[in-house]
C-alpha cells in the first residue's frame, strides 16, 4: 500500500509540474482548435519589443499550417489593458495570455525577447530558443514522436494575481517625466519602449545612463544608494530627448565625471566602412528594434551608436568607435556575435569595419550627487 501511495504522489506531481501558469487570457486563438493537442508552444513577448511583432506574424503562419494538435500561446507579463489594446490594434490571431507576476517568465529564466518554448502534452520541454528558428520540420518531427494529447484547460492553469490591477496605459504630458519605482519590479535589464510620440525607459539608473551614453553598463560607475530604479518618458524631438543624458542628470541632481578604466576593449575602425542603407530589412513602421538569435543580431533602421551599444551589452565588453561623425544615421544590420573570429570576418566582409580586441583604456562615467 505504501508503494502504491508513493507512485500516486509522483504521478500527481508530474501533472502539476507540466502545467503552465498564467494570470488571464486576453484572446483565444482564431486559427487553431483548443481541444486536445499534442504540442503547445509558448511565445514569450512584450508590446515594447518590435521584433516580437515580426515573429508573431511568422508564428501565425506556422499556426495556420498546424491548426490541430499544435497550439501557440503568446505570453506577456505586462499590464492586461495595455496588451488588450495592443492585440486589438495589431489584429493578433494567436491566443494571448498574461503572466502578470512573471511567474512563468521567471521559472523559465527568460532574459531576452522574443523567446519560445515547445512542450509536449505531459509538459516536457522539447525545444527552446528564438521563435523565428522553429520550423515546420521541427513540428513534424515532434508530432510524430509525441502521440499523447492534453486538453488546453489541463495545460494552462489560470491563477489570478492579488497584485493584478487594470490600468490605462500612461501617456506623458511634459517633454520629460520620471518616477522612481517603489521596488525593482524584477527589472533586471533595461526596457526601451517606443510608443507614438514618446519613448519610455524602465530600469536601474545604471542601465538608463548606459543607454543615454551608448556604452556598456559597467562603464557607468554608480554607488548602490544612487542606483535606484526609474520609469522615464521622453517626447520625441524635444530638447529633453535630444539631450537625454543631461536631462536625466539635472532632474536627479547628479553630476557625471569622465575617467579611464582598463581591461578588454573592442575597437572598431570605420575608415573604409560601407554600411548598409535602410532598405535591406523592413519590419514595418515603429519597429526600429533588434532581432537577437542564438548566434546573430539583426536590426532594422538602427543608428551606428545604438547598434554597437546593443552589441557591447551582448558581448559584455566595452566597444570604442574610432569615428562617431555618422553615428546618428540609420542603417540595417545583420551581425554574427557568438564566435569572435566569425564576428570579425562578418563585420569586415559585410561592412568594411575592422575589429581589434585589446587590453587597453576605455572611458568610464562616474556618477555622484551634486553638492547642495
UniProtKB/TrEMBL annotation:
All copies of domain Thioredoxin, residue ranges: 16-148
Molecular function terms from GO: oxidoreductase activity
One Pfam family matching this protein: Redoxin
Gene3D superfamilies from the UniProt entry: Glutaredoxin (3.40.30.10)
Protein name: TlpA family protein disulfide reductase
Amino acid at each position: 500500500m505504501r508503494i502504491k501511495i508513493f507512485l500516486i504522489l509522483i504521478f500527481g506531481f508530474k501533472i502539476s509540474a507540466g502545467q503552465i501558469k498564467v494570470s488571464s487570457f486576453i484572446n483565444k486563438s482564431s486559427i487553431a482548435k483548443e481541444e486536445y493537442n499534442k504540442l503547445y508552444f509558448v511565445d514569450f513577448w512584450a508590446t515594447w519589443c518590435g521584433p516580437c511583432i515580426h515573429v508573431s506574424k511568422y508564428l501565425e503562419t506556422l499556426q495556420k499550417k498546424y491548426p490541430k494538435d499544435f497550439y501557440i500561446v503568446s505570453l506577456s507579463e505586462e499590464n492586461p489593458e495595455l496588451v488588450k489594446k495592443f492585440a486589438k490594434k495589431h489584429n493578433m490571431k494567436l491566443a494571448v495570455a498574461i503572466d502578470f507576476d512573471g511567474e512563468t517568465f521567471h521559472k523559465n529564466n527568460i532574459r531576452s525577447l522574443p523567446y519560445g518554448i515547445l512542450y509536449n502534452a505531459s509538459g516536457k520541454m522539447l525545444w527552446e530558443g528564438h521563435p523565428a528558428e522553429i520550423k515546420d520540420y521541427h513540428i513534424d518531427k515532434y508530432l510524430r514522436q509525441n502521440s499523447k494529447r492534453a486538453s488546453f484547460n489541463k495545460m494552462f492553469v489560470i491563477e489570478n494575481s492579488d497584485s493584478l490591477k487594470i490600468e490605462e496605459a500612461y501617456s506623458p504630458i511634459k517633454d520629460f517625466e520620471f518616477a522612481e519605482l517603489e521596488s525593482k519590479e524584477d527589472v533586471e535589464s533595461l526596457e526601451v519602449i517606443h510608443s507614438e510620440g514618446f519613448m519610455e525607459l524602465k530600469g536601474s539608473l545604471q542601465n538608463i545612463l548606459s543607454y543615454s551614453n551608448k556604452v556598456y553598463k559597467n562603464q557607468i560607475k554608480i554607488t548602490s544608494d544612487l542606483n535606484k530604479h526609474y520609469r522615464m518618458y521622453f517626447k520625441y524631438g524635444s530638447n529633453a530627448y535630444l539631450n537625454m543624458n543631461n536631462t536625466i542628470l539635472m532632474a536627479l541632481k547628479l553630476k557625471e565625471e569622465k575617467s579611464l578604466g582598463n581591461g578588454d576593449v573592442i575597437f572598431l575602425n570605420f575608415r573604409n566602412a560601407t554600411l548598409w542603407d535602410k532598405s535591406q530589412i523592413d519590419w514595418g513602421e515603429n519597429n526600429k528594434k533588434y532581432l537577437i538569435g542564438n548566434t546573430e543580431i539583426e536590426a532594422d533602421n538602427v543608428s551606428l551608436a545604438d547598434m554597437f551599444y546593443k552589441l557591447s551589452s551582448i558581448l559584455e565588453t566595452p566597444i570604442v568607435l574610432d569615428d562617431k561623425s555618422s553615428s546618428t544615421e540609420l542603417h540595417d544590420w545583420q551581425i554574427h556575435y557568438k564566435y569572435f573570429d566569425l564576428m570579425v570576418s562578418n563585420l569586415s566582409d559585410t561592412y568594411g569595419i575592422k575589429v581589434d580586441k585589446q587590453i587597453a583604456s576605455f572611458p568610464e562615467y562616474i556618477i555622484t550627487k551634486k553638492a547642495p
